[in-house]
Amino acid sequence: PARTEGLLEDLAELFRVALADNAQAVTLGAEVELAQRYLAIEQIRFGERLRVSWELDPGASMARVPPLLLQPLVENAVRHGIEPADDGGTIRVRTRVKLGRALIAISNSLPAQPGSQPGNGIALRNVRERLRLMHDVAGQFETRLEADAYRVQIMVPL
Fold first, then answer.
1. Which side of the chain, N or C, has fewer Cβ within a 10 Å radius?
2. Is a pLDDT exceeding 80 seen at residue 117?
3. Whole-prediction pTM value?
């Protein structure tokens, strides 16, 4: 019952944020909290197949970002990295301060055999565009496919 109650609270928070007026900026700390709630739900679904590593720098938490910045990225990591892998995989979320900016890095391991259909890149384009609208050239968004992982890196002003 306690686990179910926590799951329902996490779902309620995700719905609340999704339905809110998303015109305002939020803190990176709030976005991390929402991503943690989302991954807690997925943890119930995948159990030991989903391993999550958080490396969070409190100094980066006050950076202003568009709402729902991280959730679609961790959702992609689950869908394309964890779900199709028989043994599951690892998602790493890292924040830190670097040269007066907040660095956000999200990576997911890749399955030995691709099992999910390639996406259309809608979530990535959406996040990139919302960062551009909020931070113009001061924000950066990069993706990189490596042999064993897919990585997204975002930099925003503090």
1. N
2. no
3. 0.86
